[in-house]
């Protein structure tokens, strides 16, 4: 496969991220200065990390390397002081779309800098790269400063047969406090307005799988025709980490999928992947090829404007599904199984979010207080 070039942000260092074959690499005239990055990205691919995860690491490390180039610093010269300066840069940088100064965002209250989640993700990528270098060459320890040991092992460390033996490791000090926000779904009126704006059977089926089966965008796009058992109302879903789960499909959504297959799905491209993929591009030069994440975002962007539901993002439909399960009193383990969460803590957020549960518990408590008077 030829190189597919993705420009991140042009700088004097002339660095970019390129897709080559099944992996991602730093490209451009300045790339040889940062060979460690490409070695690390290759190591992640060898460990069978998701291509999307490797791509995210590549762009996070691209931002770091561009900053190093502007600072005229080599990767081998990075110290804890260098990383602290980069952390400060991430928290104070100004960029297009955020004027800075005394103009603050209503959404997150920031006037400058990247979001806490973005900063922590970049620092995690940098930490992983230097840990890889230290593993390969013990004489070059990681410059990432470490703090006290965490109170418990991470989720990935707790999983597996010997997960109960996992000991907590020292956490990186290169982290910023990240607010824990509850998932935000759509109310019934918003969901109805958004769904009513869809016109094609394909788009209605996609939205139905998200809203009534809780599928992620990537899970919907990865569905093959053979993964959906229309008569029995089940779908075989491949989630994060290539984990499979079976989820029920609402009868109405199953009908939408069947109608799409019979009346609307175009002839697939000659490529083998497209031949089996459920949702294909319907128009234009890419007709018959698998629907891409960019294409799905464009569909939802158009229908957000058409319906006036500004929060009508794909993941909001999934959050609406989780909230509806919690409000219906669904067991926490069932919510976890249906939504494909690795840990039950992710599912518990929907219990906290469900206003019907909160109100019912509050009213019960107040009733008991009144009886005791």
CATH superfamily of the largest domain: Intergrase catalytic core
Helix content, binned percent: 40-55%
- SS-based class: mainly alpha
Main pleated sheet: 3 strands, antiparallel
Order of secondary-structure elements = EEEHHHHEHEHHHEEEHHHHHHH
How many domain modules?
A: 2
Strand content: 5-15%
Arrangement of strands in the largest sheet: 1-2-3
- Residue runs with pLDDT of under 50 for 5 or more positions: 1-13
Net shape: globular
Indicate the mean pLDDT: 84
- CATH architecture heading of the largest domain: Orthogonal Bundle
Task: Write up this protein.
With 373 residues, the chain is mostly helical. The protein folds into 2 domains: 4-147, DNA polymerase, domain 1 (Orthogonal Bundle), CATH 1.10.150; 188-357, hpI Integrase, Chain A (Orthogonal Bundle). The protein contains 15 helices and 8 strands. The chain has helices at residues 35-46, 51-71, 80-92, 116-136, 155-158, 188-197, 201-213, 217-221, 251-264, 272-276, 293-307, 314-327, 332-339, 344-353, 355-372, and strands at residues 4-6, 16-20, 23-27, 146-149, 170-172, 228-229, 234-238, 244-248. The strands form 3 sheets. It has a 3-stranded antiparallel β-sheet with strand order 1-2-3. A 3-stranded antiparallel β-sheet has the order 6-7-8. Strands 4-5 form a two-stranded antiparallel sheet. Strand 7 and strand 8 (244-248) form a beta hairpin. Helix 6 crosses helix 11 and helix 12 (314-327) packs across helix 14 (344-353). The radius of gyration is 24 Å and the shape is globular. The relative contact order is 0.07. Mean pLDDT is 84; it is low at 1-13.
